[in-house]
Design a protein that fits this description.
Helices cover 69% and strands 0% of the residues. By secondary structure, it is mainly α.
Length: 218
């Protein structure tokens, strides 16, 4: 095993923790086995992370840190919001469908009742932060007149629903024999449905029985 240098130690520890949690679950994972995966002593591991909970919190921070920059727009009011939301859906689906991220919702669903503090941390420092960023983006779209006057909080949860289901599908259902899911196709379909649902409509669009030429969108 290659020597672990201080510069890459944290990254390798987090990667080892992801693999350990994904393979064994949180309850069965052991700090000694994580240290062995990395090639460091247990004392060296405990110098960086107090316990498994600390490793889990670091993994949540790493996941959120990889997703929030997609929504970090200096002046979103001055830009069309649709393409920004579409880019986020594509990036989030690609990220969450990877094994190093998809195991988190599976772990929470499978073991959350045993570790409520982990569930709360995942909600407060993961899900809630991403939802809040999506809410702000949708609210900007509403303010610009680009989106219909929807409830941003509910719309954000609709966006997240497709992303989380895709993550669970890839890591839970596919290994059990479910049909393989094309992530790019799923991202495009989800983004199209979300954006068509959010786009501002003329009043005549809500009255399908009115088929007079003057009422049609030009």
């Amino acid at each position: 095993m290659a020597r672990v240098t201080p510069s890459d130690r944290r990254e390798r520890i987090l990667a080892a923790a992801r693999d350990e949690f994904a393979e064994r679950g949180f309850a069965a994972a052991r700090m000694a086995d994580i240290a062995r995966r990395v090639g460091v002593s247990r004392s060296a591991l405990y110098q960086m992370f107090d316990d498994k909970e600390a490793l889990f919190r670091a993994l949540v921070a790493d996941l959120v840190g990889s997703m929030l920059p997609v929504l970090d727009v200096p002046d979103p009011v001055a830009k069309p919001v649709g393409p920004l939301l579409q880019a986020f859906i594509h990036a989030a689906l690609q990220r969450m469908a990877r094994g190093d991220a998809a195991f988190l919702p599976r772990l929470i669903v499978g073991e959350g009742a045993l570790f409520p503090d982990l569930v709360r941390h995942y909600h407060d420092h993961g899900i809630a932060l991403v939802l809040a960023a999506v809410e702000r983006l949708i609210a900007h779209g509403v303010a610009r007149g680009e989106f219909a006057p929807v409830d941003p909080a509910l719309a954000a949860r609709s966006v997240a629903g497709g992303i989380l289901l895709t993550a669970l599908w890839k890591i839970v259902f596919e290994p059990a024999g479910a049909p393989l899911l094309d992530i790019n196709a799923m991202a495009s379909a989800h983004a199209d449905l979300v954006l068509h649902g959010l786009m501002q409509r003329n009043a005549s669009d809500d009255n399908p029985s009115d088929n007079t030429p003057s009422s049609k969108v030009q």
